[in-house]
Fold this sequence. Notes:
- This protein has helices at residues 29-32, 64-79, 91-107, 125-128, 138-148, 153-156, 159-178, 232-252, and strands spanning 5-6, 16-21, 42-47, 84-89, 113-117, 193-198, 217-222.
- The chain is of the alpha/beta class.
- The chain has a single domain (5-252), classed as Alpha/Beta hydrolase fold, catalytic domain (Rossmann fold, 3-Layer(aba) Sandwich), CATH 3.40.50.1820.
- Helix 1 links the parallel strand 2 and strand 3 (42-47).
- The radius of gyration is 17 Å and the shape is globular.
Amino acid sequence: MEKVLTCFRRSPEAAVRLVCFPWAGGGSIHYARWGAVLSSSVEVLAVRLPGRESRAGEPFLQSMVQLVDQLLPVLVPLLSERPFALFGHSFGAFASFAVAEALKRRHNLEPVHIFLSGASAPFSETRLNAPKRSHLSDEEFLRWVGSVGGTPPELLRTPEVLQLFLPALRADLQVVESYSCEKPAEPILSCPVTCFDGRDDAPHDLQAWRCVTSGDFSIRMFDGAHFYLKEPENEKILLDQIQKHLEPQMDYF
């Protein structure tokens, strides 16, 4: 488990586990530290993908199917023990949905809540018509990364950082761009789904996520662009929202 999941605060008595999926090119540390901020009733498990952090020597994932197949054997024993929720931003939103779908279909396990941030539904026209980025030239790719925000400009000018960061980002984008998902004829999930996004980000079709669940659906917008959640005030509000949505599980447990 320690190879795939980062957990800064183990909470054996936690009422609910929150599994967090990284954005494209991202690691697990940003989410793992949420474990020290949220109530001790929430145990935060941050997914660490191949090709970064302590798994830097492993080959990058090639597809969303491969991601799901690698994660489920680790997650299923943990998520069978107690209630769990999923959070994912951007690439992580697609990954968390793909994992949720597989958990439901293969193991009849369902999160008590799924939080999807900074991404259109994978089957929406907005997402299907989005420009492909993974095969841009290095110069074009860096220009796009800089325009999205979230990465300090000085880091984008540091060769050592680029050598570590850009291959993971390109690999994750290739996974997203090859991810195919049909609009479900009927809801896959019955749990509540909450979407978050930055008002200044490129437009995302958040409403299209509505059809994946028969449960409650809500949208919360934040000031900021794609990486709105890195802003301290936004992060505080975001975590307050997550905590609020998970409180019924804590009371029940």
